[in-house]
Amino acid sequence: MIRRPRVPAPEDFTAPSHSPLVTARLGLWLGVAFGLCFGTGLLSHYIQHPPGWFTWPTRPVNLYRVTQGVHVLSGVAAIPLLLAKLWSVYPRLFVRPPVRQPIRLSAHALERISVLVLVCAAFFELVTGLFNVAQSYPWGFFFPTAHYAVAWLVVGAMLLHVAVKLPVARAALSTPLRSRRAVRATTPGADDRDSSARRAFLRTSAGVAGIAVLATAGVTVPWLRRVSPLAWRSASGPQGVPINRTAAAARIAVPPDWRLEIVWPGGRDSLSLADLAALPQRTAELPIACVEGWSASAHWTGVPVVALLRRAGAPTGRPVRVTSLETDGLYAASTLPAVHARDPLTLLALRINGEQLSPDHGYPCRLIAPSRPGVLQTKWVARLEVLR
């Protein structure tokens, strides 16, 4: 007679890596990684699409560089931690639902649904995030919008999961000493072996997460570039600074009679490149910090936007719309908030590291402002419009 294979039960999985203590600790670490990733990602979204109540400071000048670096690197760290957490809990998949107890069945179903949503949404965020840093988009949806929307799904599902599992996690984290004493009294040496195995698994998980961060952190931490073999950007690039979009890709054609337009309610002015070069120049060391997590600093020389507006007789202390020669790009224009528009370190740059801007860096002039995402540092500037 052929016997049916027995469906495994959770008690069949006795490895210490499946213990509630391991699961609780991994969940705590993963919650920290997801929390950092979500919080800094939310900041990045608000900087690019600011609601009326939101303001973002210009100081320190590296602030966005730090927050977006934390965003991407915490996402990198979350990948091995999520895989380790799934390994520790997968025996729970074999728990049979209490079909004869409607209340417990409902709770069981709610838990399973929250876990399914959490795992699927988390993998979506992490996988598409990795594709984004590689600037590869093999899908039909707009990445920033989808990434932002699914992030809220992750947070909602995670909060629901924490609420359901909090008693179990608290018990696991608060009772290991009593458990060790009880096991030691009945089976000498068994608890020591289990504790050693648990520590080894946790250390391995933390170590893999640390190695993943170290291997990629050079994209935004200059002194780690030599030990970050998986960094997706280096310090190389046109004029020593990487770029995401070339002049050829943007189809930029600078007209021979190019002039910068400055427009404000009730007035306008225009300047040639020679006029801009003849104005008092300022040099500042500022980073290009891109949403993909990479960043690089350079010395930029140009005219402060606030000084340019004053010279033209335009009002200051208002938002400024910056428009590029690019006509069909998603970021062909950006809006400088008032706090950035009046900052003397916000430059209409003509030179980088002592050289005239190359076409790929925004010739004839580009915007460079402190603590701003790279996508908002508009290149090939043609027009400044002071808004009401």
Automatic annotation (TrEMBL):
Transmembrane segments: 26-48, 68-88, 109-134, 146-164, 200-224
Domain Oxidoreductase molybdopterin-binding: 255-387
Keywords carried by this UniProt record: Membrane, Transmembrane, Transmembrane helix
Top-level taxon of origin: Bacteria
PANTHER family cross-referenced by the UniProt entry: BLL0505 PROTEIN, PROTEIN-METHIONINE-SULFOXIDE REDUCTASE
Name the record gives this protein: Oxidoreductase molybdopterin-binding domain-containing protein
Native source species: Micromonospora saelicesensis
